[in-house]
Amino acid sequence: MPTTADFLTYSQWAGLTTLALGLLTLIAFLLKWGLRFRLVGVTGFMLVLTSGLFALGLVPFTRTTVPGAVRFARVYDTGATQAVIAVPPTITPSELEATLKQAANDLFSPGRLGRRTDQLTIRARTVLHPEPGVSQPLFLGQIKRSLLVRDDDQMTIELFTDNLAKLPPASVTSDT
User: Fold this and answer.
1) I need a surface site. Which of 11, 134, 142, 172 has the fewest CB within 10 A?
2) pLDDT reported for residue 62
């Protein structure tokens, strides 16, 4: 993933290209070339591209990773105060807690709408197959975090121990 320093470098090169195209456009107008108006469009596009790259160079990209978190998939998101993630049925309680924290970090956005509440609730679920052809969704836990504060230290995690007990035991692999 490109860093902010990379975007600043890209914006420098794009800026130099924009200046060169601007100079070429000026020459095209002075010499009345047929493609002078196309060069105006290309120069304008490069100006927009350069300013966008420069803006990306100013905004820090922060991606926090929580140790012990497993991969998850977002299966439902209102874009406001509720989201649901899917986790594998082999997850342990400690991995579930770490994964919920990771999801809370990943799904935070200051653009989420909180009409009645200022908390985002993320629920983790898995799907069990008790018999062939039957699927049973099972909610394993949830986390509630602030919609307003990125570094929320007041997050509340709730693990549903009854449902965690329904998970199949972790498969043990042997090297024999």
Assistant:
1) 172
2) 67
Helix extents (H) in 65-140:
93-106
Burial, 173: exposed, middle or buried (Cβ in 10 Å; 0-12, 13-18, 19+)? exposed
- Which one has a higher pLDDT value, 1 or 106? 106
pLDDT in tens, 11-38: 999 999 999 999 999 999 999 999 999 9
Q: Is 95 helix (H, G, I), strand (E, B) or coil?
A: helix
Question: What's the rounded Cα separation, in Å, for the pair 58 and 3?
Answer: 10
CA distance 72 to 22: 48
CB atoms within 10 A of CB 109: 10
SS3 55: helix
Q: Are strands 82-86 and 119-128 parallel, antiparallel or unpaired?
A: parallel
Region 70-99: mean pLDDT is 90
Please report, for residues 67, 107, 108, 155, the alpha-carbon distance to residue 98 in angstroms, rounded to integers and kept in the order given: 7, 14, 16, 12
Q: How far apart are CA 98 and CA 88, in angstroms?
A: 14
| pLDDT confidence of residue 40 | 96
CA proximity to 53, closest of 89, 109, 11? 11
Q: How far apart are CA 46 and CA 16, in angstroms?
A: 10
